[in-house]
Amino acid sequence: MKRFFAPGRVNLIGEHLDYNGGLVLPVCIDLGITLTLLERTDGIVTLQSKSHPLTKEISAEDTLEYNSANDWTNYPLGVIQHLREEGYRINGCDLFFESTLPESSGLSSSAALEIVTTFALLQIHRVKLDSVWLANFCKLVENNFIGVQCGIMDQYAIALGRQDQSLLIDCANLSHTYIPFELGDYRLLIMNSKKPRALIHSKYNERKSECEEALKIIHNANHDIHHLCEADPVWLDLITDEVIRKRARHVISENIRVKEAAKFLQMNDLSTFGRLMNASHYSLQVDYEVSGIELDTLVSYAQQIKNCLGARMTGAGFGGCAIAVVHQTAVSEFKEKVADNYFRVTGLTCEIYETKTGDGVHAID
Ligand code: ADP
Ligand code: MG
Predict the structure, then answer these.
(1) Whose CA is nearest to atom 15 of ligand 1?
(2) CATH 3.30.420.240 fits 186-355, yes or no
(3) 2-182+360-364 belongs to CATH 3.30.1300.10
């Protein structure tokens, strides 16, 4: 019997930049998915999750295709199918998943599931795994098998993350560096709005095409850049449509904020980092318009707590989670006040998790 763990992730700053060739700064958290693997000699693979009733049994001859009736098992099935296409033989085994990571909340449980499955299946093959290959492979599973056009950030963070470090990823060329993220007496709190992310797919695609439109206008003015994040802020004046200009202003200013955030985290200046978080949320709220009443309520009450250095929505928006950096002495006051006010304004009950940063995918002894 072998056990493996893949964490969830939060993006500290740099939102909606992955598809604009910009910088993102995720960390792995200590919530995640544990996979227990038992080898079998009959070539059969079984899939079971503690949090889902559906189980599945597949043999080496079965062709695997996405099917909504297969529910959660589509993720491991996608991994197995893609590994077969890469030429790997999948040995028989029982796979059992258990999780502390909330699902469908923007903490990337889907990527954690793909990564932990791939990691485990290849470990028993004693294949030496390249983390960047692992991230790209799982992104392709999500894009091609599941049919979700996500960027590379989630899989990259979960494959390469390290405790007490954030991962600065340049999405234009997929290079990365580690930036210290040491909280000392502060805590990273995750506020789960528990708002179903209904609009997310249509709005995500709408923002993508608005950014393409902005880039086209900049190209037409003879500025030869590949990605919107490379644009000079003064070029915003070229964009006459107010909505497109606001979208571009978020992208360009957010990329500058990520560079600043990395610089100040290097100096362990959490206060300035917190102010950049606040500015990031404002930009996502007002210019990019992807937050909504629930995330805005959580963030504004969070920001009002003394000893909260900063707060912002994280992930694609329209529900999901927000994060805050809070002094340990203020954590219980924070939880109580934010949750009470959130319920009063929205009628929803949020969940607040006090998390630590953690390592990316790994085997557990
Ligand atoms: P997110 O990645 O933000 O959590 P997604 O909608 O992309 O949200 O992925 C959530 C899906 O991943 C769930 O609906 C479920 O199918 C699958 N999933 C996540 N965690 C588990 C788990 N512990 N067991 C089985 N399936 C899981
Ligand atoms: Mg996901």
Answers:
(1) 72
(2) no
(3) no
* Predicted TM-score (pTM) above 0.85: yes
Minimum CA distance residue for ligand 1 atom 24: 49
Show the tokens assigned to 93: 């085994």
Provide DSSP, 106-120: SS-HHHHHHHHHHHH
Burial class (CB in 10 A: 0-12, 13-18, 19+), 238: middle
Greatest CA separation found in the chain? 66
Q: How far is the CA of 73 from the centre of ligand 1 (A)?
A: 10
**What ranges do the domains of the chain cover?**
2-182+360-364, 186-355
- Identify the bridge partners of residue 170 per DSSP, sorted by sequence position: 23, 175
Residue 156 Cα to ligand 2 midpoint, Å, equals 13
Give the residue numbers annotated as catalytic, written as ranges: 154
Give the whole-angstrom CA distance, residue 211 versus residue 126: 43
Q: Do domains 2-182+360-364 and 186-355 have the same CATH topology?
A: no
Q: Which residue has the tokens 């957010």?
A: 254
Would you say how long the chain is, in residues? 365
Ligand 1 pocket member 191 (CB < 6 A) = no
Rounded distance from Cα 99 to ligand 1 centre (Å): 10
- The residue whose two tokens read 């994060």 is 323
Residues 146/78, Cβ–Cβ less than 8 Å: yes
Distances (CA, A) of 290 to 23, 47, 202, 211: 19, 36, 12, 14
CA distances from residue 204 to 17, 214, 325 in whole angstroms, order as listed: 12, 16, 27
Q: What are 195-248's pLDDT values in tens digits?
A: 987 777 789 889 999 999 999 999 999 999 999 999 999 999 999 999 999 999
Residues 61-96 pLDDT 10s: 888 999 999 999 999 999 999 999 999 989 999 999
